[in-house]
Amino acid sequence: MPVNQRHTNGTKCSSHSTFQNTPMKAVKYKYKGDSDFFACLLSYIESHKLFAKKIERIRNQVFLLHLNNGQKLIVKKFADRKKWHFQHKLTSLLKYAGFSATYEFYSSIPPFEYDGCFYGLIEYIKPHPEKFHFFNHENRQEGLRLLSQFHQATKRIAHDSSLEVSTFNQLKKWEERLLVFKSMLPQISRTISEDLLLEWISWASWSLNGMRKFEDLIQKEEIAIIHGDVAHHNFLRRNDRELCLIDFDLAAIAPAVIDYLQYANRILPSINYSMNRLGEYDQLKPLLTNVAFLYGLAFPTDIFREWNRLLRENRMGSHPQFHSVWKMTVESFPERIAFNRTLAWMVHRLTG
User: Fold this and answer.
1) Which of 42, 51, 151, 210 could form a disulfide with 295 if both were Cys (CB 3.0 to 4.6 A apart)?
2) What's the DSSP call for residue 64?
3) Whole-model pTM?
């Protein structure tokens, strides 16, 4: 097959093959179990005249390449070529729509395939020493402003025919999460009172029933491409202090309010589950009269998500993460239930 055609379709490197024609120099990396993958990666980039002196794992399936010329590049794994193409196209269209606070894909080099997955090269954003978090008001406000700018851009490109983007249903996602949590109740109740767990399940059911009843109040909101995972680690403060949005693995078509609902759920622990403080943010204040949004705030998505993950990954008992999830479930219970009762009162006032 001609080289250009191979590259257009994504270069293949199986778990038992490398690019035999490219001489390789010694490169520093610590992950011996992945030596075949690194050999494929190095041969691939060297075939494109890029030479690495060091490979650093940032997190699972995301690597930092240190090149000999001083440049740095991110290597990220995508489950298939379609997912790589979507994110490549999305970031390109975002720049075209005026949203520059993210990275660009290294477009001159196509992805390479290894064991059925695709690995793409992405611009490295040099981070500021001060990491982004939700612990102070200024950061939370800045994150919301960036999210609003992102939505303004994605509303303009949401219906672009070149984007193959899936739709997202928050209600369905949370219904599935609740079912999984219920199925694991026998294991979780060995360490936490079943009565307390049933109280969480009761509030979750109340939340979902209300969201289902008033779902039209969510669906009438303007459609955008949402980010879908507005955790603090997906906001990256660049070295010049500009805040950037990264990692679009869960981006999908949905009302923009879904991102704000997820963001509100993320920041609630940092504002002590205070409704008054939630209303201080311009993007969130108007939503506090949306009954479906209020119901959504009561869903204990963080608790269910983390317990489901602990059990799925067999991290119960002495695992360090177990204690933080236990604290989230038990120690925050009084203030979160008080917050939920405030939500119930607000819903009653709005619905009569």
Assistant:
1) 210
2) E
3) 0.90
